Amino acid sequence: QHPRPQSWKAAALSHNQQSQANLLLTSLSTWCSIMTVDKECSIETPLQNKLPLFKIKAIIVRRRSMGKNLAFAHVKVIEELASSEIGTEKNESTIQVAFRRQSAAWDSSFDNTFPTKNSQLPYGAIIILHLFSNHTGSHQQSESNPTTPKYEVNKWSILMDPRIDAVDYAKTPQINNAVDTQHEGISCSKYFKARMDEYMKYNDIPKSNHAKLPKQQPKEFDTINQNQDAASHGDKKHKALRAKMFASFLIDLFGREFFQGVDVLDIAGGKGQLSFELSLQSQSLCTIIDPLIRGKGNTQQYNSRDVKRIQKANGIVPKHIAKRFVLSNECLDLVGKSKFIVGLHPDECTEDILDAALETNTPAAIIPCCVFASLFPGRKLENGEAVCSYDQFIDYLMKKDDRIKKYSLSFEGKNQVLVFDPSSNNSG
Ligand SMILES: C[S@@+](CC[C@H](N)C(=O)[O-])C[C@H]1O[C@@H](n2cnc3c(N)ncnc32)[C@H](O)[C@@H]1O
Known about the structure:
This protein is an alpha/beta fold. The protein folds into 2 domains: 42-161 and 203-229, CATH 2.40.50.140; 234-420, 3-Layer(aba) Sandwich (Rossmann fold). The chain has helices at 8-16, 20-27, 141-144, 163-170, 188-202, 219-233, 236-254, 256-259, 273-282, 304-312, 329-337, 350-360, 390-398, and strands spanning 51-65, 70-82, 94-100, 126-133, 135-136, 139-140, 151-160, 171-172, 185-187, 263-267, 285-289, 292-293, 319-321, 340-344, 364-367, 404-408, 416-420. The strands form 4 sheets. The protein has a 7-stranded mixed sheet, sandwiched between helices. Strands 1-2-3-7-4 form a 5-stranded mixed beta barrel. Helix 9 (273-282) packs parallel to helix 10 and helix 11 crosses helix 12. The chain is globular, with a radius of gyration of 23 Å. It starts with 7 loop residues before the first helix and ends in an 8-residue tail after the last strand. Bound molecules: S-adenosylmethionine. S-adenosylmethionine (SAM) binds at residues 23, 27, 31, 233, 267-271, 273, 289-292, 324-325, 344-349.
C-alpha cells in the first residue's frame, strides 16, 4: 500500500470548516469544472487598444459564464475607487464587463478567480473590479457593436457574498427521517428563494430558466459549453440511465446477495437515484448523505414515481441524512456501520469517500466527476505534478491503494468507476 499523507485527517477537518456557501458555490449549479483550457476560446485583444486601468466597487446584477475562458456580467457601480481620465461615464450606474482569460487585459496571476461557472458570479455580490476600457480613441467599440461590453476585467475579488446569508436562512433543523440531530441541512427551496429575492432586487423581470445574460456569443462557445457539461456529468438522457447502470454493474461485480438487505451509504447521493436503483435491484437498505434537501419542507422529498416503484417492489425508501460528508468521527462511524459505500459524481467529497473506505476497510465504489483543482491545490502526483485533469485525478486516487481497481461504464460523461474491495488481493 502507498503511504497516505500524515496530515490527511487534519486537512479533512479544516475542509469540514469551510463555509457551506463554498459548498453551494461548487454544488448548486453545474457541478463541474473541466481543467483543460480550450485554445479555440482565445480572443486576443491587443492591450495597446485599451485605455488604462480603473477600479470600481460594484454589485453583480446579471451574469453569464461561458466556461473556462469567457464570462460576462452586468454590474451596478457603487463607487469608483481609482479612475483613469476615462473611467465610468457619469450617470452610468450599470455597466457590462467581459472576463476573457486569454486577452491581454486579464491578469493571469489571478486565473484561480476566473469565473468559469455562473455560480462564481453570484448576483448580489459586492465586488471590486479592476477594469480596462474597450474605448479605441474617440470611437467606441460598443457603439459599433452594442453587444460588446465596453469594459474588460483585469482582476477582481468578492467583498461580500450574499450566499452566506442565503445559506444561514436555508439552514433547517432535522426532523422525521433524518438520522443525526445536528442542524446541518440546507433547504434547497429556501436557499433558492433567498437567492431569487436577491436577484429581484436588481432585475425587474423574474428569472425564468436563466438568470443570465442573453446568449450573444459566437456559436462555437455554445458548443464548447455543451461539450463541457456532457463531458463531466453526461446529458439529461444519460443522467437518467447512469444510476441504473452503476447499480447493475455493482450487482454484477459483487453478486446480488452481497447487497441484499444490507446497509449501503450513498454519499453525495443527491436525489437518490442510485439508492433507489440499488434498493429496487437488490433490496439494499440505503442511506443517502447529502446536505441539500430536495423538496419544499425540511424533509427530503423523492420523486413520487420512484417511491411508487419501490413500494410496488416491497423495497425500502432510502433514508436521508442532511449533512456534509467529511472525515469526521461521526461520518467514519456511519461508514463503518455500512457494508458498502458508494459515490456517484460526488463532487468535492470524492477523495474523502475513498479515504473513509480505506480507513475503515469498507468496500466502496465511486465514479469521480469534477477535479476541483483550485479547491485542492495540494494534490500532487508522484512526479510532483499538480492534479488538474480528470485523468490525473483518477491516477491520484488509484495510487492510494493497490487494491483499487478501475472499470469503465458505457454511459456518456464521466464514467470511470474506482472500486475498493478490501478482500481482493492486490496482484492486479
Ligand atoms: C453532481 S451531484 C450528484 C448527485 C447524485 N450522486 C447523482 O449522481 O445524481 C453532487 C452532489 O454532491 C453533493 N455534495 C457535495 N459535497 C458533499 C459533501 N461533502 N457531502 C455530501 N454531499 C456532498 C451535492 O449536494 C450534490 O447533491
